[in-house]
Amino acid sequence: MEIDDILDELVDASDALGIVAPNFGTSKGKAYEVWIMLEIVVRLNARGIEIFSRDRDGAFEPNFRVSGSPTNMPPSGGSGDGPCHFLLRKLGRELELHLGLKHVGSSAASHEMDLSVVWASQGKALRDSGGGPFADQPLIGLELKAYSEKYKLDHSIPRALIGVAVDLDPWWPMQSLTLNTTGGGNHTVTRTNRMHLAVLTTTELYGSSANYLTHFGAGAHSFVTPENNVAAIDAIVSEIIRCFH
Amino acid sequence: MAELDLRLLPVLNAVMRSPLAPLGTSAIERLDAAHGDRFRFDDDRDPLAPSPEEADSDRANRQLKIFDTVIGGRLRLELKLLEQSQLLVKEIASQPSADGFESFATAFIMPDTVDPELQEGIGGENLLSGVRREQLERTLKAWDKAVGIVMTALSEPRDQ
User: Fold this and answer.
1) By the CB < 8 Å criterion, does B137 face chain A?
2) B125, A17: Cβ pair inside 8 Å?
């Protein structure tokens, strides 16, 4: 077979791929985000959490839609379009899991989280009031980056995540606060309800990036693919389950 | 600026006139970054030292590997993610639920998005369809063949 024939076949095949996957090459890892979401949902279900696919009106949606770009919480009303979410339920408590949701911080700047978990009551309240970026603190926020495994993840991604955390919760980097009295007594207050953030990537994090993230209590997970380090997903699942308690 | 081995040009041309073009651009950027790395000087490298020499065939093979890492690697990862996601959707659909999960479809559709630069809508797609999988497999097979034939050509002596 001549090289010209082989290259013609490559062009023909990728043209056909372009028809069924017009966003391939530009979608920046949407398939990765979807895979992580499904892994989380299935593992939550295996650990006793009820899972439900929901549209913007809270109705069952068999054709789960995800947005190709960062998006506001859609307003309720108008079923049949808009991104869907998973409703998670245990012991009467309900959470929502979203992909690509926009959040707004104290600076009024909006930030995308690749995957967010929020209280269902807050999600519903935002949809019922017309939608928009999520202004309350999420319980879980993940940065998901599908990069070629040969190259390490740019340090700017962990930096940006910590910056977003501070904008969403200015006290987020502080785990505890100790008050000293003049008489020498002290009292320490420790936070128990801090949002959990993490970076999951198909490639490797620089050592300094991993140290930077873990210093602030965020998760740093390298080589998370269907074939490697799925334990990182279990760690996230455990964090979500902790939110129910 | 990296100098591309001319024997790789036909493959790059084919990529750049296809929907794989964004990956071709990434591969060129990666190739250029790797080239710059070779001439970087730091505490371990004397800036006045002679530039590292590289045989033509070594350079061509290195460049082809970068192309395969970026383009073939992306196709392989996408296929693996799709296969695994299809299994997970089946697992979700098999769970007994009062909510009707037995009808949970394998359709994850990305609604129309807007390219912020072009302000044009990009068509939605079913991320987990069987036809998407088939076309990914077909493209990956064609890509592997193209890499294979270039690799063979690189192992042969060049015409003078």
Assistant:
1) no
2) no
Flag whether A20 is in a domain. no
Q: Do B18 and A227 touch (CB under 8 A)?
A: no
Taking only the tens place, the pLDDT of each residue in A86-138 is 999 998 999 999 999 999 999 999 999 999 999 999 999 999 999 999 999 99
Instruction: Enumerate residues 6+ apart whose C-beta is below 8 A from B26.
Output: B70
Residues of A in contact with B101 (CB under 8 A): 51-53
Domain-embedded: residue A5: no
- For residue A221, give the nearest of A156, A158, A137, A138 by alpha carbon: A158
Distances (CA, A) of A54 to A12, A31, A209: 38, 20, 36
Residue A130 CB partners (closer than 8 Å, separation 6+): A75
Output the CA–CA distances (angstroms, integers) from residue A94 to A172, A173, A192, in the order listed: 23, 27, 19
In a domain, A13, yes or no: no
- Domain holding A60, by residue range, is 30-243
Give the C-alpha separation, A76 to A79, whole Å.
Answer: 8
DSSP H or E run through A86: strand A85-90
C-alpha A214 chain-centroid distance: 17
Q: Specify the pTM.
A: 0.87
Residue B118 has pLDDT above 50, yes or no: no
Q: Is A93 left (phi over 0), alpha (psi -120 to 50) or beta?
A: beta
Task: Decide if B92 and A41 are in contact by the 8 Å CB cutoff.
Answer: yes
How does pLDDT run across B52-61, given as a tens digit for each residue? 667 777 888 9
Question: Chain B: residue nearest A71 by CA?
Answer: B113
* Contact call for residues B24 and B16 (beta carbons, < 8 A): yes
- Number of domains present in the structure of chain A: 1
Reported as type and span, the H/E element at residue A127 is helix A120-128
Average pLDDT in chain A? 90
